[in-house]
Amino acid sequence: MLTDLFLSVARGYLDATGLKPKTLSHRVFGDAKVLPELFDGGRTLTFTRAEAALQWFSDHWPANATWPAGVKRPPPSTAAESSQPEVA
């Protein structure tokens, strides 16, 4: 269930930005294989890594996109509040 919620955030970001999963995976995790493997069901994340990734998504969420319903959004970190998210 937590994986589904996490992946709904990742899908929402992909839909809003038009990025490819490998590109987003590299930006979030520093590894282009993580998100594609999560989408395929062949990988899991620790809670610590998932929380860090959700924070990344919150900090970089496109202003014109809606955060997925049912997933509590972490407040943007102070450094992220002054910067615009990178799109494509």
Structure description:
The structure is a single chain. The protein is mostly helical and 88 residues long. It has one domain (2-80). It is 57% helix and 0% strand. The protein is built from five helices and no strands. The protein has helices at 2-17, 21-29, 34-40, 47-60, 78-81. The longest helix is centred in the first third of the chain and has 16 residues, at 2-17. The protein starts with a helix and ends in a 7-residue tail after the last helix. The relative contact order is 0.20. The mean pLDDT is 89.
Please count the beta strands (DSSP E, at least 2 residues each).
0
Q: Indicate the overall shape.
A: globular
What is the terminal separation in angstroms? 29 Å
Mean pLDDT: 89
Provide the succession of SSEs.
HHHHH
Radius of gyration: 12 Å
